[in-house]
Design goal:
It is built from nine helices and eleven strands. With 289 residues, the chain is α/β, with parallel strands linked by helices.
């Protein structure tokens, strides 16, 4: 190894708990998955140099955004991978396992690992560690194997406000019916329709803290779509809005003005409702990393 690092720099179990609690609560607010990995020597060796070698090796292989720590029992290592899924964590483990098997200085060492992907906040630090230690304590787990704790992968259900702003009563009803029937995993849509921009602003529904999907026409009586767009994008929490603008103007200039004003999608009328559904589903699929 080309770089020497001190194992004293590695955080200890009690030091990591407060970081874990912050990240756990951020899972819901920011919709950012993180994954915990735990490693243990498959055949424990009491030589301090062995543990130090593994610790230094892991320090060199993790990213700057990852957090390596030593458990209090001195027999396990933990790594938190921020904004990463279990798929990425497993790829990391397979990569380092391959390196350890090939390098002569580690030929007397065998490891096993466990992975826990965290997509909700229904876990405390002590339980997380206990469950993974229990998995790794199974004497039937083979060397270089990876097991998973699946308890915290269930993504919570989130309510989304949906506002339709369309002056045509028939098309407004069609849109309302379509979005009420739209099934998006882990999201519940609460749909309300408005005939103009003024009635939408008077409703105050846009002032709540919920994520808010706006599907609106660019031309509306009493506060048109562009005015509404400007108001929403100048709010302090404007990032909660997903704004789809519908228009009969099929021109690059109209679309460019809309995107520069802050719309997320510009849809030219007439359009296929299935296309709208697909776009919305794709938008929400991107929210969880």
């Amino acid at each position: 190894m080309s770089k020497i690092m001190s194992t004293e720099d590695v955080m200890q179990e009690h030091e990591v708990k407060r970081y874990f609690e912050i990240w756990r609560e951020s899972v819901i607010r920011s919709r950012l998955t993180f994954t915990a990995v735990f490693l243990k020597l498959a055949h424990p060796l009491q030589l301090p140099t062995t543990h130090n070698k593994i610790t230094t090796f892991l320090q060199l292989k993790i990213r700057k955004t990852d957090l390596l720590f030593q458990l209090a029992d001195g027999e396990h290592w933990g790594i938190f991978f921020l904004q990463s899924s279990d798929v990425e964590a497993k790829a990391f483990l397979n990569r380092i396992f391959a390196i350890l098997k090939e390098e002569k200085e580690f030929n007397h060492i065998t490891l096993k690992a466990s992975i826990t992907e965290i997509r909700n906040n229904n876990v405390d630090f002590e339980t997380l560690i206990a469950k993974n230690k229990q998995k790794l304590g199974d004497n039937e787990q083979s060397t270089w194997s990876i097991v998973q704790v699946e308890d915290y992968r269930e993504q919570p259900n989130e309510q989304v406000k949906v506002s339709i702003l369309e002056q045509n009563p028939i098309f407004r009803k069609v849109l309302e019916s379509t979005l009420n029937q739209l099934d998006i995993p882990h999201f519940t849509l609460a749909v309300t329709a408005y005939e103009d921009g003024y009635s939408f602003l008077q409703s105050d529904t846009y002032k709540t803290g919920h994520m808010h999907l706006i599907v609106m026409n660019d031309i509306l009586p009493r506060k048109n779509g562009l005015e509404i767009l400007h108001i929403l994008r100048n709010m302090p929490n404007e990032k909660k809005f997903i704004i789809y603008m519908m228009s009969e103007r099929n021109s690059e200039i109209a679309a460019l003005n809309a995107y520069e004003g802050g719309v997320d999608e510009y849809i030219v009328k007439p359009f296929n409702l299935r296309l709208l559904e697909a776009k919305i589903k794709r938008t929400f699929a991107r929210f969880w990393l």
